[in-house]
Specification:
154 residues, mainly beta, 5-stranded antiparallel sheet, 4-stranded antiparallel sheet, globular
């Protein structure tokens, strides 16, 4: 019997280049499907999440890391790209994929991905982060598949 390596990346040397750091399992992935504040999150496969519904209030949905426990995952020094929100819709900036510090605060320049915006950013020192789906306004309706990706480019 072989058990896969579920360890989080611990140091800069272990953060791979070119690998999606946001692959399954996501924080809520064990549930396969769950609803929070009117939005349903359904795991379709190891790369795809279906989000649907109308959010009842501004909310964050954790994908990786947990701000309540202070546990995130480490991004080592390097350049990263955040993407995967193109199916949300061109005019729908109410839903964004975000990278934040492990305490839940934004970086000096917020890192947000939405349709048409796949930010590239640089981490200058090893940093523990969390990744969230942010729904910015009450009454926002969405029904699409997303493929969240965070890839170290260099």
């Amino acid at each position: 019997i072989c058990r896969p390596n579920y360890k989080q990346y611990k140091s800069a040397e272990q953060t791979p280049i070119g690998e999606n750091l946001l692959n399954y399992p996501w924080v809520y992935g064990a549930l396969k499907e769950s609803t929070s504040n009117g939005i349903t999150f359904a795991v379709k496969d190891k790369n795809t999440i279906h989000i649907s519904g109308t959010n009842m209030s501004e909310t964050d949905r954790k994908l990786k890391g947990n701000v309540e426990t202070g546990m995130g995952f480490k991004l080592s020094v390097g350049t990263y790209e955040l993407s995967g929100m193109d199916n949300v819709g061109v005019n729908n900036v109410g839903v964004a994929l975000q990278v934040r510090k492990v305490d839940g605060t934004d970086f000096d320049t917020p890192i947000r991905c939405y349709t048409g915006a796949n930010p590239t950013f640089t981490i200058s020192e090893d940093t523990d982060v969390i990744v969230l789906l942010h729904f910015g306004s009450n009454g926002y309706t969405v029904d699409c598949d997303i493929t969240p990706t965070l890839i170290r480019k260099s």
